[in-house]
Amino acid sequence: MYKKLSFSIILSMAVLIQGFLVLGWGVSRASAATTQCSDVAIPSGSVVTAVFTTSACGSGSNNTYTVSPATSGLATCAVAALPPGWVTTSIFNSSTCGTSTVGGNTKVLAVPAAGLAICTPGSSFPAGYVATSLYNSATCNASTPSGNTAVLAVPKAGLAICTPGYSFPAGYVATSLYNSATCNASTPSGNTAVLAVPKAGLAICNLAGPIPSGWTVASRYNSAQCGPSTVNGNTSVLQS
Q1: Each residue of 169-200: b (16+ CB within 10 Å) or e?
Q2: 79 Cβ partners below 8 Å, 6+ apart?
Q3: According to the model, what pLDDT value does residue 23 have?
Q4: With helix as H, strand as E and coil as C, how does 29-61 read?
Q5: Strands 149-153, 203-205: pairing kind
Q6: CA distances from residue 169 to 13, 44, 118 in whole angstroms, order as listed
């Protein structure tokens, strides 16, 4: 009985002390927070918002978590994967999330939206979006060769998108491939592609992806607009 009472008191005090996030970063306070030992599975749709040590959860350090439902603007601890459908807009180290790491131990949540700058090391790239800019920013902590920050957009014809590390959007082809400073690190085939909707007679860049389903090739050749030349030609003309 005393052990159960002690556990309840310790964890209740921990919620009061640890359940508030660093407001100076412009993030929200944990809502509907609960406290659990770190070896307990995190509920679906929830995130860890604080990491600390209690005797109620054993002898190890950082053995206790504050857990809250995921909400936009919430600062979460990078001890667990984000729930599906969420991205990160800031990464930093905070004492709230325990031990500091090179990549940052804290991430700020957001819902994907066009124009939103997301941290690529801290997010799975959201379905239905493309990147129109890649760069390194202090907001997303540690720099990467391809850039730690991506600006989201909804794909459309004529849009120039960044290709490194991302799947080409379904239902589109590229009519131009080149390297641009907007998309950060150059690649042999070009880090930027201009989108188009497939149609008969359209010349598309082969290095951007396969011939779309339902289309065949009328001719192939090498062109300056589709990056480096290849043995079979870097450009295909579509026919239905």
Answers
A1: beebbbbbbbbeebbbeebebbbbbbbbebee
A2: 38, 48, 51, 65, 97, 98, 105
A3: 30
A4: CCCCCEEEECCCCCCCCEEEEEEECCHHHCCCC
A5: unpaired
A6: 49, 29, 18
- Is the Cα dihedral 45, 167, 176, 164 positive or negative? positive
Tell me the domain boundaries of the chain: 1-111
Q: What is the DSSP string of 210-221?
A: PPPTT-EEEEEE
Helix (H) or strand (E) segment spanning residue 92: strand 87-92
Residue 69: strand pairing partners: 46
pLDDT digits (tens, 9 = 90+) for 116-170: 999 998 788 899 999 999 999 999 999 999 899 999 999 999 999 999 777 788 8
